[in-house]
Request: fold
Amino acid sequence: MSSESKKNYIVQPGGSFKGSIRVPGDKSISHRSIMLGSLAEGVTEVTGFLEGEDALATLASFRAMGVQIDGPKEGKVTIHGVGMKGLKAPKEDVYLGNSGTSIRLLSGLLAGQQFTSTLTGDKSLSGRPMRRVTDPLALMGAVIDSNDGKPPLLIKAGNKLTAITYKLPMASAQVKSCILLAGMYAEGTTTVTEPGPTRDHTERMLSGMGYQVEVQGDTVSIEGGGKLTATNIDVPADISSATFFMVGAAISEGSDLTLTHVGVNPTRIGVINILRLMGADISLSNEKMTGGEPVADIRIKYAPLKGINIPEDQVPLAIDEFPALFVAAACAEGQTVLTGAEELRVKESDRIQAMADGLQILGVDAQSTTDGIIINGGVIGSGEVESHDDHRIAMSFAIAGLQAGGTIQINDCANVATSFPNFVELANEVGLDIDEIDE
Ligand code: S3P
Reply:
């Protein structure tokens, strides 16, 4: 497991991004492919599956609940679905590592089972808020014990679930998905309203597997008691992983990089919208649909960036991309202001503080605010920064090296393996001078 080995990155300054690469599969869609494929009737073939620790934790948890899953081998996974009522009690606690998506979606799905289960995670996951899922699940009739609102979650067996109509207090696809998955096991029609659009991969995959989901504006409804039919799922490349390369190309003169077969679901493209507002030169080609999800090749060429006020409606659409976008802001001319992003404080780390602290160490004028950050673009220097065991913080500071005045050392980067196991290899391939040092 990543947390047992300590890895630091050493990034030499300079370089630019050139070439064409495909980054690994979408993490959100990979999780959902295992969950829904396991509950389906029939055999689901997944291609492009992310072989990162988070999605593998989900895979292992369904194996532990009696589902035969072959692979992953070169991104291919075969899931022998057991049907809506076919899961078996896991013999041990279900360990979900660093993965918030696994624990929050599974809590909804397991609330409807006839067996008790306990969900645990690593140090970071054990500190993350779970009331956002246990509160609505309790309203549905689930009985879940937690450690003062944090993992482990003990989900008690055999409670009859009843549909609810629920207004999400925060824009969260994990909470929305959790409630929809529980809704499949509830009596009646469960309805969730979100404050703004969040990623809709759950809704798309449910529909693709023949489970009716009704979407009307900001409201999603699902009726309990339906079934899922196995289908083949082609997982697009993860736009959140592509982001590090998009930002790298946007900030380094001479860059011209193409990222192929990237998922460009409208609920995920905040990073493209924000970078374009900053002046980035981004074009999409080969746009098509695969398995109900839009994909495209993204080409990004260097162009000077300017600071902006980030529109708040883009925040949920770029929620995982802000650490990298802060690096873009550090390289832009003028001031960038982010507001309405307090959710960033409860991710794998407090991403506002982690980035503000690291950017300051590198000589950038970055000030955290309660719900965002203010960054004055300038010169990136050199220094030693902490990733706080957060994969996206580690990769963001890595690409800052392209514009740095000297070497950047980034500590505790092992968790990059949760979402992007071949990051160092691909980054070196397209033009970053980065080494991984084991401690
Ligand atoms: C995810 C939803 C987002 C995101 C996370 C993956 C998902 O979390 O940050 O990386 O797959 O549903 P929130 O729902 O907490 O915003």
Q: What stands out?
A: The mean pLDDT is 97.
